[in-house]
Amino acid sequence: MGIRTAVFPVGGLGTRFLPATKAVPKEMLPVVDKPLIQYAVEEARDAGIENFVFVTAHGKAAVENHFDRNAELERALRERGQDDLLELAIVAGTVPGRMSYVRQMDALGLGHAVWCARNLIADEPFAVLLADELLRGDRPPLADLIDVHTEVGGNVISVIEVPQDATGSYGIVTPGVINGRTIEVKGLVEKPDPADAPSRYAAVGRYILEPGIMSLLGEGHRGAGGEIQLTDAMARLIGGAPFHAVIHDGPRYDCGMKVGFLEANVALALERDDLGADVAATLRRLLP
Ligand code: UTP
Predict the structure, then answer these.
(1) Domain count, the chain
(2) Rounded to the nearest whole angstrom, what is the distance from the C-alpha of residue 13 to the centroid of ligand 1?
(3) What are phi and psi of 252, to 5 degrees?
(4) Is residue 283 part of a domain?
(5) Does residue 65 carry a pLDDT above 70?
(6) What's the Cα-to-Cα distance from 204 to each of 88, 161, 254, rounded to whole Å?
(7) What's the mean per-residue pLDDT of the chain?
(8) Which residues line ligand 1 (CB under 6 A)?
(9) Site to substitute for ligand 1 among 13, 17, 112, most atoms within 8 A of C-beta
(10) What is the domain range of residue 225?
């Protein structure tokens, strides 16, 4: 079955970006001039996703408002003849009735956030995208996962190779057969010490999951950091259905970290026709 629904967990506290995230959701922080969550939604839309499910929390109303229409703003821009800005005020692909919001109510971890979407996924395989992982590519990175799912079914996640000393920040894969960019997943472990890590293949926030994961998440087991971990539930799916990882080969910015977020801003600004030259000149001036 094709992948029609994507879940966007945006229920986290975003503590690493305080004070910016006290009243503004982390996922609304802009990279150049577009909020992180919009990059993720556009990636999903361009990969063919039709239903967008956001798992939100107290203080995240800006996410809902962002994917709604703003009649007052649109009227003002229309009256001023600013059609180019009018186009930016509407997120393409946000069809009424296809954007759903559910509250996590308690920030118990990513696994708990995904479980909160259980009544909105229609018992079908679904995608999960973490907006603070900004992945770029010639085609939407999620599309690579959907291709593997179409071919072999089961669960599919996106990975990159991280330095050995960084494994403690990621879910890490125990690899089986490797075929080009596709890796058979034999095991998964959340945040292993570098000495215990089964590989350097780290999950980076894109998942295709079978709906059966919901009942495992519903058991509410606490894992690393006392949180209900998505990785732990995924590990229990291995063996029951095919499980693969796809190596993401385009740029990746960890926008949950300050340096990654700043790098994304600089890199995407340098790519822009309207900004690139000015930003490059500014950087040259600032650098010693
Ligand atoms: P992070 O681990 O980056 O946590 O979550 P966080 O709360 O957003 O940020 P810090 O660590 O406090 O700075 C990864 C993704 O999972 C979501 C977050 O919103 C983010 O998109 N998440 C995490 C939830 O939706 N609920 C949770 O309980 C935890």
Answers:
(1) 1
(2) 6
(3) -140, 130
(4) no
(5) yes
(6) 28, 10, 9
(7) 95
(8) 9-16, 26, 55, 104, 107-110, 112-113, 130-132, 256
(9) 13
(10) 5-256
Question: Quick one: tokens of 80?
Answer: 């001023």
CA-to-CA dists, residue 231 to 23, 198, 205, 242, 251, angstroms: 29, 14, 11, 16, 23
Distance 22 CA to ligand 1 centre (A): 14
Q: For the residues 191-212, what does the mean pLDDT come to?
A: 97
Is residue 278, in this structure, part of any structural domain at all? no
* CA 108 to ligand 1 center in whole angstroms: 9
Domain at 229, CATH number? 3.90.550.10
C-alpha to C-alpha distance for 21 and 17, rounded to whole angstroms: 6
Candidate from 17, 38, 43, 110 with most ligand 1 atoms within 8 A of CB, to mutate? 110
pTM of the full predicted structure? 0.96
The secondary structure of the chain in percent helix, strand, coil, rounded to multiples of 5, reads 40, 25, 35
